[in-house]
Amino acid sequence: MIHGYAYKPIVEAVSAQLARGSVWSANNRPQVELAEQIVRRVPSIEKVLFNNSGTEAFNLALNICRGATGRYKFLMAAGGYHGSMFDPSLGSKGLPGPSHYVAPYGDTEAFVAAIQQHGKELAGVFVEGIMGSGGFAQAPKSFFDAVKQAAHDVGAIFVLDEVISLRLSEGGHQATLGIDPDLTMMGKIIGGGFPIGGVGGKADLMDLTNPVSGHVLASGTFSGNPLSMVAGNISVAHLTQAKIDQIGAWATSIEAAIKAKSAAIGLPIWTRRVGSLVSWYFYDPGPGVVLGGARPDLAMVKLHHTAMLINGLFPTPRAALATSTAMSDAVVDDIIARFGASLEALLEDTGV
Ligand SMILES: Cc1ncc(COP(=O)(O)O)c(C=O)c1O
Question: Is the pTM of this model over 0.90?
Answer without folding.
Answer: yes
